[in-house]
Write a structure and sequence with these properties.
Layout (H helix, E strand, L loop, with lengths): L2 H13 L7 H13 L3 E4 L6 H12 L3 E5 L6 H5 E6 L4 E6 L6 E5 L6 H4 L3 H6 L1 E4 L2 E4 L5 E6 L12 H5 L3 E4 L5 H13 L14 H12 L5 H15 L4 E3 L3 H17 L7 H6 L1 H5 L4 E2 L10 H11 L36
Parallel strand pairs: 1-8, 1-9, 2-5, 5-8
Antiparallel strand pairs: 3-4, 6-7, 10-11
Helix pairs in contact: 1-2, 1-3, 1-9, 2-11, 9-11, 10-11
GO molecular function: ATP binding; ATP hydrolysis activity
Protein name: ATPase associated with various cellular activities AAA_3
Pfam families: AAA_3, AAA_lid_2
Length: about 350
């Protein structure tokens, strides 16, 4: 078992002691942790968005903070400010909640756009500027933000620049009937079941080793071309006014490599890219004015693009790297998600 695979399995196993039916969500979070990305979780209230973030923080053992985003919150409440100390007659720096490895921004779309913008510099450059002083954030640094759907009362839609800082956006669905039944059974036995029931199962060194392993995952030229064609097809779609930037292409590359690593592969297959099609692009698209008249949604655009762009097929050069840095010919070693269903 590889370092990244062992890390993912440990986190998933520990979080599953409390969490029910959110395995894909843990996978998305692990992928972003290993690639320096940030995740936006969207869903109606009461479906464990914040719980998932807190459980993930507990299992990883990273220093973490939770910021409850409200309309009266100010940027300085997040980043920090200099405070005058009457006893010494001096100003001292009081760091904000953003100075943690893992920052949970709860209900981020309840804060005003001005306050939301406090995350822009931190999420892109991993440092913040306070009164002209630039301060580095802890490494690794990851933001997990939650939000309610934008059509709910009392929320502000995140600006495009803010949304683009998130490597992935994951829509959290309601549980199935069986999952909700199991949830009721667990809560009946342990009414206080929550983040305190999750223990740290990985170390900082293990995270560093797994992150290095991800960087060494092989990506065949055909896979890179597939990524470029997907992003290009979205940009040129008739219903899209603004598509994904090169940052989206890079997000595809990084998330695909991380997913390959946590499933025990040293190379990327097309399914690694397809798995992240929606999480990487769904929040980056801006539809044109006629899309609503045509009753076209972002999901419709992504579905049509996925169908129109053929992934590299079984007759292509093998995706597995050879010792000389190339890749093999044939199908004997090609693997898809079917080979790793037991790993997920």
């Amino acid at each position: 078992m590889t370092d990244a695979e062992a890390l993912y399995d440990s986190i998933l196993t520990e979080v599953s002691h409390v969490l029910i039916g959110k395995e894909n969500l843990v996978e998305h979070l692990t992928v972003s942790l290993l690639t320096g990305g940030h995740v936006l979780l969207e869903g109606v209230p009461g479906i464990a968005k914040t719980m998932v973030a807190n459980l993930f923080a507990g299992a990883t053992g990273l220093s973490h903070s939770r910021i409850q985003m409200t309309p009266d919150l100010l940027p300085a409440d997040i980043t920090g400010t200099h405070v005058y100390r009457e006893g010494t007659g001096e100003f001292t720096l009081q760091k904000g909640s953003i100075f943690a490895n893992l920052v949970v921004a709860d209900e981020i779309n309840r804060a005003t756009p001005k306050t939301q913008s406090a995350f822009l510099e931190a999420m892109e450059e991993e440092h913040v500027t306070i009164n002209g002083e630039t301060l580095s954030l802890p490494d690794p640094f990851m933001v997990i933000a939650t939000q309610n759907p934008i059509d709910m009362e009392g929320t502000y839609q995140l600006p495009e620049a803010q949304r683009d800082r998130f490597q992935q956006k994951v829509v959290v669905d309601l549980p199935s009937a069986d999952e909700e039944q199991e949830l009721l059974d667990r809560i009946d036995v342990n009414p206080n079941l929550g983040p305190d029931d999750v223990a740290q199962v990985v170390t900082a060194d293990a995270i560093d080793d797994a992150r290095r392993e991800v960087t060494e995952v092989h990506v065949a030229p055909e896979i890179k071309t597939y990524i470029r064609r997907l992003v290009e097809a979205v940009r040129t779609h008739e219903a899209v006014e603004y598509g994904g930037s090169p940052r989206a292409s890079i997000a595809f590359l990084q998330t695909a490599k991380a997913r390959a690593a946590i499933h025990g592969r040293s190379y990327v297959v097309p399914d690694d890219v397809k798995f992240h099609l929606r999480s990487v692009l769904i929040h980056r698209l801006v539809l044109d004015a006629d899309a609503e008249l045509r009753e076209t949604t972002v999901a419709d655009v992504l579905d049509s693009v996925e169908e129109s762009i053929d992934p590299p097929g079984s007759t292509m050069d093998e995706l597995v790297p050879t010792p000389d840095g190339g890749h093999q010919q044939g199908d004997d070693h090609q693997q898809t998600d079917d080979d790793h269903q037991d790993d997920a």
